[in-house]
Amino acid sequence: MESKRRNMLHSELAERLPEFPEYKSGLAERLPEFPEYKSGLAERLPEFPEYKSELAERLPEFPEYKSELAERLPEFPEYKSGLAERLPELPEFKSELAERHAELPEC
């Protein structure tokens, strides 16, 4: 049942991608330059619109950021699509993101 819920959530996220085409790539490239943002990364994302791209694509290179992003993502729905788009390619992130989104009804 949990798996079915996650699959439904993943499908919903993927379907919403066209709503957020501008959030697809960039932030991850600069992450090593800003280690001080590790703990509050998702919180600070809206302050840095220039880093909108390539986050999901580069996530496997930065596993230490996975939990923070998954926890804070529901607070920033405008960043959901880039991650959702890459979930099939990044199965290690699918579960945690789905669990976090399922916590909020609007997700």
Detailed description of the structure:
With 107 residues, this protein is an all-alpha fold. It has one domain (2-102). The protein is 49% helix and 0% strand. It has helices at residues 2-15, 27-30, 41-44, 55-58, 66-72, 80-86, 91-102. The chain is globular and about 40 Å long. Residues 17-32, 34-40 and 49-54 have low confidence and may be disordered.
Which properties best describe this structure?
mainly alpha; 107 residues; 0% strand; globular
Number of helices: 7
How many strands, what sense, and barrel or not for the largest sheet?
none
User: Oligomeric status of the shown chains?
Assistant: single chain
**Could you estimate the helical fraction of the residues in percent?**
40-55%
Distance between the termini: 18 Å
**How big a fraction of the residues is strand?**
under 5%
- Written as H for each helix and E for each strand, in order along the chain, the element string is HHHHHHH
* Domain count: 1
Q: What would the principal axes of the Cα set say about the shape?
A: globular
Low-confidence stretches: 17-32, 34-40, 49-54
